[in-house]
Amino acid sequence: MRKIIISTFLTLDGVLQAPGGPQEDTAGGFQWGGWSATYWDEIMNQTMGSSMSQPFDLLLGRKTYDIFAAHWPYIQHDPIADLFNRIEKFVVSSKPQTLSWQNSTLITGDVVAGLRALKLQQGHDLLVNGSGKLIQTLLANDLADRLHIWTFPVTIGSGKRLFAEGTQPGNWELLGTTVSSTGVIMATYEPGGELKPGSFALETPTEAELARRKKVATED
Fold first, then answer.
1. Coil, helix or strand at residue 41
2. How many CB atoms lie under 10 A from the CB of residue 36?
């Protein structure tokens, strides 16, 4: 059975849109593309290399696939380009698409059923890069097996966000963290079961607390 592993770059305020360059994704008039580029150091390179050291295939949303397909096939004498060009690419799209990049397979129609079937296959784990809309689908349907979240010391205020409406409540277990010399926090999580809320409130609420609750209920 394959695992789906999400690897994403994130600002402090939760934006994942266009970390790599100004023209990567300008949807919504986004003007801050390339916000991750100036933070890279050797620690990040080593961490990225470690996460890609085991065999994997790519699972991509259609827009990220288009970005990759316009870039990696045209890069020569580069180990990442050689790897990405060689491995299998699975592309999730709500509509039929023509896929020009070699070793690419389309998943469309009932994409959730298609993703579940893909996970049940024998094969390498599936690495998700970018692909914000696909990530929302994976999180909403409990299909993510691991999260690599790299949080950059940047705030933007607008743009596409990682955890949008539809994300399911749940616990995530922190497996480990690494911090770059530039302040990027690289954390790895796996699903940790259902969310179980607790309370720090007094066992017997005060009159003031009861009045506050009544006021809140009225305001709602």
1. coil
2. 20
Amino acid letter, 74: Y
pLDDT at 53: 87
User: Cα–Cα distance between 32 and 52 in angstroms, integer?
Assistant: 27
Rounded CA gap, 214 and 159, in Å? 37
Distances (CA, A) of 6 to 9, 37, 132, 180, 190: 10, 20, 10, 20, 10
User: Which residues, given as ranges, of the chain have pLDDT below 70?
Assistant: 220
Provide the token pair at 111: 């994409």
| CB 128 within 8 Å of CB 135 | yes
For the chain, the C-alpha Rg in angstroms (whole number) is: 20
Work out the number of other CB atoms within 10 angstroms of the CB of residue 143: 21
Q: Are 124 and 56 in contact (CB under 8 A)?
A: yes
Contact assessment for residue 189 and residue 146, using Cβ atoms and an 8 Å cutoff:
yes
Residue 51's pLDDT is: 85
Share of the chain above pLDDT 70, in %: 99
Look at the pTM and tell me if it is higher than 0.85: yes
Handedness of CA 150, 181, 49, 178 (dihedral sign): negative
DSSP 165: T
The 3-state DSSP class for residue 176 equals strand
